[in-house]
Amino acid sequence: MLTGHHNTNYVLRVGLLLALLLGIAPFVRFKYRVPLKTVEVVPRIWPSEVDVLEVVCRHLSEVPRGLAVPGDRSLHRYLRGKALSERNPDGRIDDELMREFAAFFVRTAQVPAKELPACPVDWPADGESEKFLHWLVDFTENRVHLPNRDRFGDLFDAVGIPLDAMTTFKKNHRELARRPFVLLHTDVHRANVVLHRKGIAVIDWELAIYGDPLHDLATHVVRMGYSEDEKQRMIALWAEAMEEAGLGSLTAGLHDDLSTYLDFEYAQSVFPDIMRAALALPADAGELHFRGAGDRVSRAMQRARKPLELDQVPDSEQIVEALRKWHSMHATPAPIAKP
Question: Mean pLDDT across the stretch 108-126?
Answer without folding.
Answer: 97
